[in-house]
Amino acid sequence: MYLHLGNDTIIRKDDIIGIFDLEGSTVSGRTRDFLASAEKSGNIVNVSAELPKSFVLCREKDGFRIYICQLSPVTLIKRASQMNITGE
Known about the structure:
single chain; alpha+beta; 4-stranded mixed beta sheet; about 35% helix; globular
């Protein structure tokens, strides 16, 4: 099953480690450091054409990838939950 993040980006739902609120989670210095390190190593994909609201941490074969998204975490979680209910 897949989750649409916007701007023609779809990820496998099984690969999702977590969905995070960008504004709330970047209050922590550790999260800011983690995101900065991921950006330097090329592990961030920005799929937001507008102001980003969330980031999705996904496992990859060689580590992880972070998707910066314009959708709120609540919207993404609802989309993921609806996929379970409808069986898509």
